[in-house]
Specification:
The structure is a single chain. Strand 1, helix 1 and strand 2 form a beta-alpha-beta unit. The chain has a single domain, classed as Response regulator (Rossmann fold), CATH 3.40.50. It has about 150 residues and is an alpha/beta fold.
Length: about 150
């Protein structure tokens, strides 16, 4: 099983959106028996909380299930459980390195580095723009799935 973990600051906006969308893509491609998906936060502010209402609304708009999404914090041992650890921005990536104790490891990737955008995904908790976040997360998730398919011969 290939394990993918999406990370953002609070695990209520960007990373659960990416988790749900990536699961949706994996299911659509009939790869659920090969790829498992999760998400986590680098902070502990929203542990145990469901996604932000804006994230839930955008997922509903695109008919993507939000079942099972609940905030949790990234743990050091997650480094060993996951094959791909995906940060939404540069600060997330720095915090992933700090928490896991594995600086500059190639399994840790900023999501949009896989796309033509090559930038941070703005946090809609602060911007309020869940549509832009969805557009960027969608581009990143599609690029990530292509990368995994190629690397894992799927």
């Amino acid at each position: 099983m290939i394990n993918v973990l999406f990370i953002c600051l609070g695990n209520i906006c960007r990373s659960p959106m990416a988790e749900a969308l990536f699961r949706h893509l994996v299911k659509k491609e009939k790869l659920t028996n090969k790829i498992a998906v999760d998400s986590a936060a680098t902070s502990s502010w929203q542990i145990g909380f469901p996604p932000h209402a804006g994230t839930l609304e955008i997922l509903k708009k695109y008919k993507i299930s939000s079942d099972g999404l609940i905030g949790r914090k990234l743990r050091k041992e997650d480094f060993w459980r996951f094959d791909y650890i995906i940060g939404m921005d540069k600060n997330n990536v720095k915090n992933i390195y700090r928490i896991t104790g594995k600086p500059n490891h190639p399994k840790v990737i900023r999501l949009l580095d896989l796309t033509k955008y090559r930038k941070d995904i703005p946090d809609p908790f602060f911007t309020g723009d869940f549509d832009e976040t969805y557009r960027l997360v969608s581009a990143g998730c599609r690029a990530l799935l292509n990368k995994i398919r190629k690397e894992q011969n799927l």
